Amino acid sequence: MRTLQLAGVEVPVIGQGTWRMGEDSSQYASEVAALRQGIELGMTLIDSAEMYAEGAAEEVVGEAIAGQRDKVFLVSKVYPHNASRQGVPLACERSLKRLRTDYIDLYLLHWRGQYPLEETVDAFERLREAGKIGRWGVSNFDLDDLHELAAPACATNQVLYNLEARGIEFDLLPWCQQQRLPVMAYCPIGQGGHMLAHATLGQVAARHAATPAQVALAWILRQDGVIAIPKAVRPEHVKLNAQAHDIRLEPGDLEALDQVFRAPQRKQRLAMV
Ligand SMILES: NC(=O)c1ccc[n+]([C@@H]2O[C@H](COP(=O)([O-])OP(=O)(O)OC[C@H]3O[C@@H](n4cnc5c(N)ncnc54)[C@H](OP(=O)(O)O)[C@@H]3O)[C@@H](O)[C@H]2O)c1
Fold first, then answer.
1. Ligand 1 near 230 CB (within 6 A)
2. Cβ(238)–Cβ(21) under 8 Å?
């Protein structure tokens, strides 16, 4: 699978999300199996957060990566209300315990909250010096937030990006590409919702003998410096997502998609889920 440099490490351009995992104990074994299957298929970047199922998603990840920690690039996130000087290291320790590891490759501020950015960044830097995290980054930061952050050490910005939510193409994405700041696209397949039923998407998919979700992923990966992190539990979804890497959309496909999923013509406030 194609890789890009994130936090100084080569990571696959398709990773695995974990939101909604850990919420239903009857799904635990399937979720662990899905993440393991994804790792085998090369989707070795796993994205989680202390927020997901209030820590239970990280426990699923911990089980999935047991015995193969070195194969995986782990991303997790701190709640804004824990992003203080004292709160960050405590939250990180709790995440490490649930993930059953002694370091997180990339630790993100989930969204901006009440604590000054310098305080959170300082706490992240201390964790990095202590070897608890490899690098740190942010999530749900618009361009003005990134300007205010003004931190070259920030390793990524994780934001909503899919066919229906293209606002970042106007200013945020070009700026990140110019700065060589990798962007992680969350909800890349629109949470499996009505976007996938769009007729044009279906027609493009048929031309490639692919599924709409695969085209949605391939469409994201046409951009330089972008990583998609779909979440999938069903084994067939995991497989299809990994295979989406091999789909190359033609200019005609992109034009057809542009007709119905419009690119932004002006600045749009960063959308969040
Ligand atoms: N930083 C943030 O604020 C933020 C916000 C939202 C999400 N995220 C991260 O981004 C990840 C992805 O976003 P998301 O989980 O909200 O949405 P998503 O990945 O766009 O969609 C997940 C849904 O799509 C289904 N699906 C997966 N692969 C499919 C396929 N090939 N064909 C059809 N359906 C498919 C899944 O079903 P099954 O599970 O049944 O297979 C699931 O219901 C999250 O899990 C999380 O790690 C971050």
1. yes
2. no
